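For this section, I looked closely at a protein sequence along with its fold in token form, which I now present.
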Amino acid sequence: MSKGLEGIIAAKTSISSIIGSTLTYRGYTIEDLAAHASFEEVLFLLWEGRLPNSEELHSLEKELFSFLHLPDKMKVFIRSFSREGNSMEVLRTSVSALPLFIPYDSAAPPLKQATMLQAQMTSLVAAIARHRKGKVVLEPLEGRSLAENFLYMMSGVEPTAIENEAMNKALILHADHELNASTFSSRVTVATLSDIYSGLTSAIGTLKGPLHGGANEQVMKMLEEVGDIDNVDTYIHGKLERKEKIMGMGHRVYREGDPRAAILKDMSQKLTKVAGESKWYEMSEKIEALILKEKGLKPNVDFYSASVYYSMNIPGEMFTPLFAVSRTSGWVAHMLEQYSDNRLIRPRAEYVGETHQEYVPIEER
């Protein structure tokens, strides 16, 4: 038995790999893609297995834009939720309802299915963010990247060049991560030959947990509790003495550090400086050094993503839904891969309960 299936190889995939501290998508390192590619190029890479040429990229961008418009009935549905409701619960329920408003065509080419789902998820999360603020849902701007439109549709303000760069990198970095918990749950769901929206709903429910996608929101809450760099030592040592988990530190797979964290750390330094709130980066850096010294743990992707998103005025409750926008690309790639060579995922369990029990009539108990 392997508790939590740790170390168990459950599937073959050609989508992404983690070897040591190197993360690749279709053989390209995450550092290479984050430095040079657009998120749209990475979408094509994940779904088609190769980088697009200029004509293919333009076609994908055009089709993504065509699917960004949410049906009016979907907007009404979102407005039916409490503005104070948990954003991931609203997202999970909304994604489950999407095929009722936008029928899913399982016979459509895989690239078209993936494009539609990616665009819908992007607009849906932006719409939820607008609803929480009591503001009208915005339509996308033609000729803009998915990262630009996502930021615009959430805030109503066109992003700056550095904000667009940061969001593009963040979307790329969170796009896929081999058989992480939410990806695995999506594959388990579609392995029953259920539909792709059911797989997305399963994945979102899994991502909601604080040990997975919810960690970045908890990191920001921690930074706000610390408040100032002079409070870091006392705060962190207090948590360590109480044996409380420091969110955003350590990783189940990476032993030598998460390669995505270094890229986001650089963006955090730049964005917090531009926002005039370098203290969030400075506190994060000091916490990183302290946890490395005390526990030997390095930051994961969630740690610096918190201050990156906060510096772009994205509310903390939208951090995990934002993660879902990016990871939809990987979820869809994995679900399509599962369909292409499917076998029902059905592990066994080791029974450790009572044995040789006999029924006792209720009056004798």
